[in-house]
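User: Can you help me understand a structure? I only have the sequence.
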Amino acid sequence: MAVRPYKPEENKWWIDISPGRKYRHRKVFEGTYEKAVVYEQELKKYLAQREKHKGTITIRQIAEEYLQFVKIHQAEGTFRLKRRIILNLIMPFFGNFSFDMITPRLIDAYKLKRLRELQAKGVKGTRAINVELNVLSAMSRFAMERGYISEPLKIK
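Assistant: Let's start by predicting it. Here is the structure, written out as tokens:
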């Protein structure tokens, strides 16, 4: 955590904050040294507050924001498919969990449940289950990009 001069120019400062071992926040600030120190302190407060709220958001809470993002940035057919998967399949099983609570064991339980449901219908279903888990993984990456969680899900 430091405020250092930005070498090529005057009145530019590196704001360098490392809240943990994994992440490092570096910003170039233009202004006086005193203002750079104040900015560093505000940035530390913001990052600490954001870190405090990580892991408390559930999949149910992030789903609406994710679906709005998909509607804007992806095709209409993709939006309809993801909305159906999230609302009908992911929310009933994972909705009350936060992303950090999802373990490989829980994912295996979901796979087994869905496989039994699809086999009862006479469908092979492994591709469908993988697509559903890809949607869940994409939602976790979205949550990480928005700062809700620190690491995305790793689904095998």
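Now, to help you interpret it: Residues 106 and 145 are 24 Å apart (CA to CA). Helices lie at 33-53, 59-73, 76-94, 104-121, 126-145. Let me know which part you'd like to focus on.
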